[in-house]
Amino acid sequence: MTSALKKIVLASNNQGKLAELQAMFAPLGVELVRQGDLHIGEAEEPFHTFVENALAKARHAARESGLPAVADDAGLCVDAFGGLPGVQTAYYATQFGYEKSDDNNVRALLEQMANIDNRRAALVSTLVAVRHPDDPEPLIAVGRAVGEITRAPVGANGFGFDPIMFIPRFGKTFAELPIDVKNANSHRGQAAQQMLALMRERWFA
What we know:
One of its GO terms (molecular function) is nucleotide binding. By secondary structure, the chain is α/β, with parallel strands linked by helices. It is 30% helix and 22% strand.
C-alpha cells in the first residue's frame, strides 16, 4: 500500500481519543492527524447506530482531506435505560440542562441512576476506516466492555465515563487501571486491536 496511508485522518477532535488511538496504532507506523488540525469541520451524525455514524464521519474526513480516514463512534449503553444513551452519549448531559462535557455527562448519569439498582452497562466503540470517501469496503471493528456504573467517580486515569465504569474482573474502574491495561481491555482498545488486524490484512499486506 502507498506511503500516503502512513498518515490517516482521525474524524474527531477529542484529544483523549487521539492519544489513545495513536498509541494503539503505533505498531502500524501510522500517524493519526485530528481533522480539526486540517481545518475540517465535524460531520453530521443523524443516525441511530454507532456504525452508521462512524461511517459518515470517516467518509466526510476522507472527502475533505484527500487522505484515508478512521472514525470512532462510541457511547455508553445502560441496561436500565434500554441501551440509552447510546449514540447520543456525547450530548447526554445537555438533556438535563448541563453544558456538553465529559464531567457533566458523569454528573448527569449518576443523578439519573441515583435510585436504580441495576447498574449494568456497556461501553461500545465502533471504528470505521476508509481508504477514500467512496471506499466500497470500509473496515469495521467493534469493541464492547461490560461493567457496572459506580455510585461515585473512582480513579484519576482516563477520560469520559472511565471513573464510574467498574470492571468486575479487575475489581477496579477503568480510571484506576494502568493505561496499558486499560487500553488492552477497553471498548476502544478491543476495537483498535481488531482494526489493526484488518488494516494489516487489507491495506498493508
